[in-house]
Design a protein that fits this description.
Distance between the termini: 93 Å
Largest sheet: 3 strands, antiparallel
Radius of gyration: 33 Å
Structural class: alpha+beta
Low-confidence stretches: none
Order of helices and strands: HHEEE
Shape: rod-shaped
Length: 141
């Protein structure tokens, strides 16, 4: 009965106030009421650690994808300003993350916009984007 109730053959103990007032903690040794609580706390702590680490890795991967998208937009704008739109599309396919889209606009001032899903689309609803501008070269078609 762990000293909590008055069962058959057990005696009721009176709690004494500690010196200086306050409440005394009941003695629960041998009761088993907290058995397994450390295991549960460790499981919750480890699972939280795994989730935080996964979010950190996803954030780093998104930052790398943003840098790749920015590089691809700059190269695409430069190539499109020279009049080579096919090479601009090819460089976006090569440099930007998979699933990226290129939009080229402008005549005297070429604007290249690259939009990409981070982590190959594993983060739904999030799109990375970069825009670069280049002046069209005079002898470009």
């Amino acid at each position: 009965m762990c000293g909590h109730g008055a069962g058959r053959g057990s005696r009721l103990e009176v709690a004494r106030l500690p010196e200086g007032g306050g409440f005394a903690r009941p003695d629960r040794r041998g009761c088993g009421g907290d058995r397994g609580s450390v295991t549960v706390e460790a499981a919750i702590g480890l699972s939280t650690l795994v989730v935080v680490m996964a979010l950190c890795v996803a954030g780093l991967a998104a930052m790398v994808a943003q840098v790749r998208t920015t590089d691809a937009a700059g190269e695409a704008a430069r190539l499109a300003a020279r009049g080579d739109e096919a090479a601009a599309r090819a460089v976006v396919e090569r440099l930007a993350p998979s699933g990226s889209e290129l939009q080229l606009t402008g005549s005297a001032l070429v604007t290249a916009r690259v939009v990409a899903p981070p982590l190959g689309g594993l983060l739904p609803g999030i799109r990375l984007g970069a825009t670069a501008v280049a002046m069209r070269e005079p002898d470009a078609p």
